[in-house]
Amino acid sequence: MAFIGISGMQYSGASLSHHRILVAEDSNVFTSMISKRLKELFDIDVEICRSFEELELAYDKSTDKVTLAISNINLPGAENGEALNYLVDLSIPTIVFTGTFQQATRDQLLSKEIVDYILKDNIFAVDMLAESVCRFLTNHQHHVLIVDDSATARALLTTRLKRYNFRVSTAENGSSALALLKANPDIALMITDYNMPDIDGFELTRRIRGTVGSHQLRIIGVSSSTDRLLSARFLKAGGNDFIMRPFIDEEFYCRVNQNLDTLTQIRTARQRQQA
Hints:
The chain is α/β, with parallel strands linked by helices. Helix content is 44%, strand content 19%. The chain has ten helices and twelve strands.
């Protein structure tokens, strides 16, 4: 199965048809478009729930695990967001597909730790939704290393990345990070703090780049410093990207995706050259 997303994401791997996906949406137009697109791209037969009652029945009728839900904010019988709360309470990863969106809506959605939200007011909305579904179902293939001497910071980033279905390892200092990278050559992305006691983020990046290139490992630096030159210094040290804390969730996820997409594209190009 091959798929190229609207943002340039590439996936070429096993069928995704074994995943159980619920679609909580009352619009016949959108349910038809979503069903057709996910079947066409990934051979996934989704379960349509056009009301809150149908959603409850769909969940109760089978003991098979629900991999992912796609849900509107409001449904018949759940006009105040009860359907979304129901899915969140069941710990079902959920992508919100909605035409209702304001700043307060966005803040409320992110507080529920949803996987993603897609706005319907876009001609590419269904394609964007399909890409978001594909990312969630395949992100477990990516191993991400978080390096930070703050246990709180490590926990927050770990929670954020696991919400998106990534495999995550953590290191509390540069020395531990180097050991983990040596023991886990499948790590594709490292997110490292700048200010650490033993080896700072710059030095850690320089040491890694002595043996591991950007075609093997992408490195994102992070810092809460107000020094705007940090990003330039980090990139000069061999980093691929830099993000200032506090993060905006959407930007953070986009940066992670872009770096992993670039890595995939580089690997694909190198494989073609060697073929």
